[in-house]
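Lecture notes, continued. The same structure-token format from the folding unit now serves as the input rather than the output. Read the line below as a description of shape only.
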């Protein structure tokens, strides 16, 4: 057995498969994570746009960017982090790149990401409301 297959076996054994929704770069998400302060724990939300997803296995991470009081704040989360309580996808973004680093240089309305209109879910919801 070579070194790479041994590493792959160890990664698969240690990797816990979290049940997170599928998201990609450009999506707006809310990451709820647990913060431990001394003996107390609390949950805090971090809402922003996903600007990249990289890695694989245990080292897979995603970066979320938000603007807080006019200052850009980025936070990197690991998919295998046990402190992530939940991830909610707020809206899907329509982007043509996997890495959205260009958002760092934009401010105001130019930094917006267009929303992806998914026709399958909106038509089903509107037709269900019409039937009632």
């Amino acid at each position: 057995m070579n070194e790479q297959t041994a590493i792959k076996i160890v990664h698969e054994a240690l990797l816990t498969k979290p049940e997170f929704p599928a998201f990609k770069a450009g999506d707006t998400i809310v990451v709820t994570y647990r913060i431990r302060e001394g003996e107390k724990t609390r949950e805090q939300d971090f809402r922003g746009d996903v600007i990249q997803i990289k890695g694989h296995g245990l080292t897979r991470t995603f970066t979320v960017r938000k603007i807080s009081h006019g200052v850009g704040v980025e936070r990197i989360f690991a998919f295998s982090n046990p402190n992530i309580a939940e991830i909610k996808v707020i809206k899907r973004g329509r982007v043509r790149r996997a890495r959205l680093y260009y958002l760092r240089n934009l401010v105001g309305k130019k930094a917006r990401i267009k929303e992806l209109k998914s026709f399958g879910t909106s038509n089903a919801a509107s037709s269900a409301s019409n039937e009632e």
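Point for the exam: Helices lie at 3-14, 119-131.
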